[in-house]
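name: query_chain
kind: protein
chains: 1
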Amino acid sequence: ANSFFLLYILDEFNIYTREAGAGGLAIAVEGPAKAEIDFFDRKDGSCGVAYVCPEPGDYQISIKFNDEHIPESPFNVSIVPPFGDAKKLTIHSLKTKGLDVNRQYTFTVNVNGARGHVDARIIAPSGVEESCTVQDMGDDHYAIRFVPKENGIHWIHVRFNGRDIPDSPFRIVVGQANADPGRVFASGSGLYQGETGQSCEFLIDTTNAGAGALAVTVDGPSKVQLDCREVTEGYRVTFTPTAPGDYLISIKFAGINIAGSPFKCTVG
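structure:
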């Protein structure tokens, strides 16, 4: 089904039935709350539909002609709250480059007279998500504190009353220049081919890459358990596929794919 996004306001769409012949038309909007629907026949082979969803969330719009869904019906619609007062908020003193791992950083948010709840969260390169500490400093200012735990690109979401403020999420880069994914190399037959029920093995060389988080995932016809062991050259990784087919091996360092990643391993 089709998916699209709408603001949490009155919306309209048209249905053209001129070429369909005689028949009954039925429209339904289903979701977290009951939507108000206004239907009007223009008498020219087309109909107009207007609706208002009273709450944000995921809705489905079903359109049937003679009790059968029209092509691509039901349509998925994500209703989000409007920016509202969130557009009034401004960010100050957010450092976006050259941050260090395990060090606390602080930036401020000015709500500029808006009244509501401020919250923030940080998403690390590995996908781990943590809440930021938000402190009301008075005089319309909030202090937001966070401690990055990984090298690489992070994203900071700042929300007001559940809605991202303009330009959120904010991109920050953690780590020194020596955390270089371009200096990480993978080798071994297990990156390219294997046999069902037999161990596939490869080596990841991180000796010249500096400090950074290493993330390895394998996706394919069967779920596999990764065994990652530290060796002199870096890490030795093994997995045992239980079904034949193509497996994609993703290797990221500091949140960035290394050269050749994702690798395709064909298992016979």
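note: The chain has a mean pLDDT of 85.
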